Amino acid sequence: MGSMQGRIRAWLPSWSLPLRALAIALVVVIVRLVLDLASLERISLSPLVVALITANVFVLSFILNGVLSDYKESEKLPGDLATGMESIAEDCLLLWRHKQAQPARDCLHYMLDLTVALKGWFCKKERTQSLMDKVYGLGDFFMAFEPFTQANFIVRLKQEQNAISRMVTRIHTVRETEFVSSGHTMAKAVTGFVLIALLTVKVDPWYESVFLVGVIAWFLSYLIMLISDLDNPFDYDEEGRPRGQEISLKPLDDVERRIAQKLEFVNSASIMASESPSP
Q: Measured by CB atoms within 10 angstroms of the end CB, which terminus of the chain is less buried, N or C?
């Protein structure tokens, strides 16, 4: 029973967009059927109608190609963010283990809070400027490391910090910017005109016209919805659940758990050291 529910949960996200597009196509089919029964078709099936549909598909394909390129680039960002966060946390753990540096322990606490804030930012619970201030706040800890380590060690940490801030800025840009907004608006308008033309074009027999119009309407509606969905690959609700075909944030969940484990190890070791009898 559990495996069946898991398969259903895995199946639903991939079919959410096609089913929503199918609902629009069914409305178009019903309207087309009514018009067929009432003999209200007015547009003849000329090469101009075919050219209009072809041009619309071409524009949609062009926009989809651009959106997909951004989506493929964005797929790497949560994993890269998690790698950068864990790299800093791991260096802090090493510095504490070998030098017993209290700033390194404090930085581990800060890294855990920063990871939670980063996940909240994806869910729009945290403002971008506030998150960036927290990322730049790592610099205070790095300066405190100076008495305990070499300069090259701190330089590497600063490089990771800069990479994290750069990726946050990139994600913010992807999330707030619509790809070729004017072209996207034009594609939606032309798709609407195409659907209107499909409703009134003369095609016999009636069942053939209903089938063809339904399939074309389903395909065009799905392309419009897919472009709108992929244009923002970081659209999550307040609970972190994706609203569509969003990129997984599992790398951040994993790195939060691992940083918490590192911090638990440090706290346990500190307690054991304080309880051990002095020589």
A: C
Residues in the chain: 279
Whole-prediction pTM: 0.77
Question: Which amino acid is located at 264 in the chain?
Answer: E
Q: H helices of the chain, where?
A: 2-37, 47-75, 77-99, 102-122, 128-136, 138-144, 151-176, 181-200, 206-230, 250-275
Work out the pLDDT band at 169, boundaries 50, 70, 90.
very high
Domain ranges of the chain: 21-74+184-230, 77-177+239-267
Q: Which two tokens stand for residue 6?
A: 């898991």
In angstroms, rounded to a whole number, what is the distance separating the alpha carbons of residues 150 and 197? 71
Distances (CA, A) of 115 to 59, 137, 164, 234: 40, 13, 11, 16
**HSE-CB for 148 with a 13 A CA cutoff:** 21
- What are the tokens at 135? 């990322």
